Recover the amino acids of this structure.
């Protein structure tokens, strides 16, 4: 159902949509009320995404939002006083999270992880975390370079991840669409040349200026995946980590 941001939505606007599910009576009205609240919340809180998937109807006709995702547009927060309580203040951030924020990086420190992660996009980062877990690892952080991954920003990202507690290996998974793979590789090699980290690092990098980026990684003997999958890169990282341990 197309939503018009200038329209005020009422219960009857979603009833016809819910009737298409086959629900009737009280269950239909409950679901319509749930969807209406979802729509109203989407507009009230300046959301980018508002999703309930799935909605469950139990044997007693009760409705439950079994999973939900809600992403607020940061640039609209000033219009939504109620949403300010959702933000993590600087006092709630770890030292590394605060450092990352100062460098313009989206970084979240996770507990008891052993693999540091740098991704070129939140979706790619989530997929990387899933793949790390599927192969017996545990992400130590989430870090998204975003769409402006300069040489300095890439260097800052690797420096922070290398300092993340518990990290034994680092997986860097980027797709250079807007970002330039050569500039990312330059930032990574700046840190590698300066710090000379002992931790295992594996890179999966494709896209804009990929050949130049690959050449820089190869010159530092950094293992990387050219045309393979995220899974292949994670398997390579785990194998390198085991070899170093033995």
């Amino acid at each position: 159902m197309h939503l018009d941001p200038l329209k005020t939505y009422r219960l009857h606007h979603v009833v016809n949509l819910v009737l298409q599910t086959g629900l009737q009576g009280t269950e239909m009205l409950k679901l319509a009320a749930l969807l209406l609240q979802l729509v109203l919340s989407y507009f009230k809180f300046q959301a980018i995404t508002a999703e309930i998937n799935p909605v469950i109807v139990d044997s007693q006709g009760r409705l439950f939002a079994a999973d939900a995702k809600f992403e607020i547009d940061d640039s609209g927060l000033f219009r939504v006083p109620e949403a300010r309580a959702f933000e993590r203040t600087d006092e709630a951030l770890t030292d590394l999270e605060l450092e990352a924020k100062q460098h313009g990086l989206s970084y979240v420190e996770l507990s008891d992880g052993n693999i540091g992660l740098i991704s070129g996009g939140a979706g790619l980062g989530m997929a990387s975390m899933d793949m790390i877990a599927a192969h017996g690892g545990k992400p130590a952080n989430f870090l998204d370079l975003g769409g402006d991954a300069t040489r300095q920003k890439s260097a800052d990202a690797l420096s922070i991840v290398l300092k993340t507690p518990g990290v034994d290996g680092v997986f860097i998974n980027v797709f250079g669409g807007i970002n330039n793979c050569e500039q990312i590789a330059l930032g990574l090699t700046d840190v590698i040349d300066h710090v000379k980290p002992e931790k295992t690092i594996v890179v999966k990098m494709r896209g804009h200026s990929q050949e130049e980026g690959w050449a820089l990684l190869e010159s530092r003997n950094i293992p990387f995946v050219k045309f393979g999958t995220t899974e292949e890169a994670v398997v390579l990282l785990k194998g390198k980590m085991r070899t170093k341990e033995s």
Summary: The helical segments are 11-19, 25-44, 95-102, 122-134, 151-162, 181-195, 210-219, 230-245. The chain has two domains: 11-80, 93-245.
